[in-house]
Amino acid sequence: MKKFLYFIYLVFFRNTPEDYRPYSLCFPWIRSFLVRNYLKKCGKKPLVKNRAEISLYATVGDYTEMGTRCMIQTNVHLGSYVIMGPDVKIYSRNHKFDSLEIPIAKQGKNFFNTYVGDDVWIGANVVITAGCKVGNHCVIAAGSIVTKDVPDYAIVGGVPAKIIKYRNKAVEE
Length: 173
Known about the structure:
Layout: H1 2-13, H2 27-38, E1 41-42, E2 47-48, E3 53-54, E4 59-60, E5 65-66, E6 71-72, E7 76-78, E8 83-84, E9 89-90, E10 93-95, E11 109-111, E12 114-116, E13 121-122, E14 127-128, E15 133-134, E16 139-140, E17 145-146, E18 154-157, E19 162-166
Parallel strand pairs: 1-4, 2-5, 3-6, 4-7, 6-9, 7-12, 8-13, 9-14, 12-15, 13-16, 14-17, 16-18
Antiparallel strand pairs: 10-11, 18-19
């Protein structure tokens, strides 16, 4: 049944109008309903934006917003109250490239678990690479590429993403 709902989502409802459009009708609700029911595990009231690509085997917490044109691979675990801007990519696999004798395309892939904690704001065009863990209460600046784990309360940005400051520390002036 889950694969059937996934198929219905991809073919008929993935490209429906965004919720802020006056002609969106009930399409945002249908997108969220389908995703909530085909995911491996999903919390309350996910918000699924237009053209979001979310694997069957991802897990999503309560009240999480999956941004416009986001791509969430298998084995990605999103916490509760995560919000993401458009074009976010969260990966969980990489190509193997150990052998020089075999073309990279034929070496297969490594699979990892990628985690995003609770209460995280992921800006537009962010890439989170396979196997990274983003802590709770973090902010990831737009355009960043996260290649290492991010501790709780960190604000990170850049390519590769580096800690700018912490949300829970007093501002020193």
